[in-house]
Amino acid sequence: MPYISKIELRGFKSFGNTKVTIPLSKGLTAIVGPNGMGKSNIIDALCFVLGWMSAKTMRAERFSDLLFNGGNGSRPASFAEVSLHFDNSDGGLPINSKEVVITRQLHRDGKCTYRINKRRATREEIIDLLAAKMTCPGGYNFVLQGEVNRFFSMDPVERRKIIDDLAGVAEYDEKKQKSLNELQKVEANLANVGAVLAEISSQMENLREQMETAIHYKQLKREREQIRGILLQIRKEKCLGKIEQLKTKIASLTEEIEKQRNRYKKILEEKEKLNAKIEEISRSVDEKRSSDVLVVAERARAEINTLSDILKRTEERKSALDQEIESLSLQIKRLCDSKKTAAEETLESLLTKFDNTRSKFLDLYHSLNRCESLASAKALLKQIHETLNELSKIVERISASIGPQKIKQMELQQVNEDKLRGELAGLQRTRDELNKQVLELSRKIQEAQAKLKGADSQEKEIKSSIETLVAQRSSLREKLESLGKRERELEPKIRAMEGDLQRFQIQQDALANELREINNELKNVGESSLPENADPEALEKRAQEIEAELASLGERVNLRAIQDFRESERRYNEEKAKHDKLMAEKQSLLNFMAEIDEKKKQVFMKTFNEISKHFTQIFRELSPNGDAMLKLENEQSPFDGGLEIIARPEGSGTSYIGSLSGGQMALTALAFIFALQRYRPTTFYVLDEIDAHLDPKNRTRVAEMLRQFSRESQIVVVTLHDAVMSVADRLFGVTKENGISRIYAVELSNVEG
């Protein structure tokens, strides 16, 4: 059988915002803990997820009270959710899944949703799904806190109605009430029909005297109506001829309109196809324009332009450096020629500045070789250019400092000719590096040109394909425009034909109305065969003669006497048939109600006897030396009395339940509840503190009975006593921490029997 493997709660009552999982035993699961910790909230959660609709049944004033309210630093829950996980390995539930999860979620706005295996469902679907294995919400497999007291505090009639519910007596009561309602209607109808019969009989006597006087008048009237019918037939034939002509026109015009509509539809379909082709071509053009080949070619051109620009700047810098080297060489030559090595303090500082600027230039140059992008290369070239300009200015100043006007000062200070030669050598090395850079840039330009050459043919092919597609698209757009023109031409033409068709249909409707009027008149006068060569004028003349003869009979003739008599006779016969039928219905209803009462009593007594048998047997098991029985206050007519419980607990005399002690009443009430459950067993039971008023000995017996029940059904019980704990297959404790209920598994080996 399917059973609940675990319960999951989130945001429900005292269980906080964190998901809480409670695995259940296939047999008996006991939930224990001090009062106020939240044990019964687990039972409320079971009621909630199984679709119970009364908040008060779940110990709440309103449904929003079922949500965790927060406090002690915890935020209130925005929703409450409870899920039941069913082990459906044996396929007991009609769902093709080994695990079935039923979920109910409640939001603070009152919105409630149900789910079966995460699929949105209704409450009725869940109830129907579990109906075969578990009773509906409110069934006797759920015994909530305090309900044991309710069973022994009931009055006898309330107690008997429990048997009524289990026996399905309500179904018979509904049938009987429905029959009583029908009987009242039948009796009221009988009274009405009797009054009508008396009235019709009186009318028939008065009409019978006038009937013979009106016969001759009626014959004349019939002839007049025959003439009128022939005249109407003549009008009808003319009207039918016109209608046939209009039908021919309408059919022809309808066919032409349908033909033009089909043409219009084909134009729209062709336009749709052309638009699709145009969109497809446009996508192809866009794809080709974004082709990798075009991108590669465009990037190659950009790279060539950038590298060419860098090459040009590098060559310009190299040319400037050549001039500087040449100028420095001339200065060194002059120094050598004049044999003057002295220099003033200013020349020494200029040489130091020259060294520093040259070092900066070399650093920038070496950084150029490590550039990873054209943009960074451009920026470094700009800095190199500025550094070379600075070197040029320093060289000019050095040149000026060693000119003819400084000869006297240079004689005082020896110029370091070796140092100048070293600087010259450094500039020459820099020039060599720039030459290498020029060669490297030239090589990169050649590589980019090679890439461009490789992509050039494919680029031309793609551009040619794009041009072809654009031409095709233009051609298709021209066709689309042509179709649009044809569409615009067809629309007014179709509307004009539809206008003509509407006018013809209006004319046809007018003729149809005229024909209906003629047919209605023919119904009044009676259709007659149309004579050949009928003369309308002669027929009109004869009709006038008949009118004059009818007028000569005077007002003493009751023109409706014969018809009224026959109508009264017909009504009398109909009402008499109704009267006889109603009498038969009345007797049938009386017989049916007697049969319902008998079946109702039989069903009730069968249920009562079985429950009584279970009650006596269970009571003897709970109180071995005791005895108990169920007794109807009125055995001959059980529904006119209540149900008494008579018990003789072990060591006591025989008493009605109200005379027993609290513990004895609780034990007797439990026996009654177990008898109800045994009569209609289910796979799942929920019992909340049913052992609260029992003494230790009786708790042990009740616990043993629960253990036996758990072999066939799954049981969840809330208890405070060791007797029930000791027989549990699984035990959970409930405590509270900071206002939130916590679940703890309890080792059964630590529980004393």
Automatic annotation (TrEMBL):
PANTHER family: STRUCTURAL MAINTENANCE OF CHROMOSOMES PROTEIN 3
Keywords carried by this UniProt record: Coiled coil
Keyword Plastid: no
Transmembrane segments: none
Gene3D superfamilies according to UniProt: 1.20.5.1700, P-loop containing nucleotide triphosphate hydrolases
Protein name per UniProt: AAA+ ATPase domain-containing protein
InterPro entries according to UniProt: AAA+_ATPase, P-loop_NTPase, RecF/RecN/SMC_N
UniProt cross-references to SUPFAM superfamilies, sorted A to Z: P-loop containing nucleoside triphosphate hydrolases (SSF52540)
Coiled coil: 169-331, 417-528
UniProt keyword Coiled coil, yes or no: yes
Pfam families membership: SMC_N
Domain AAA+ ATPase: 25-738
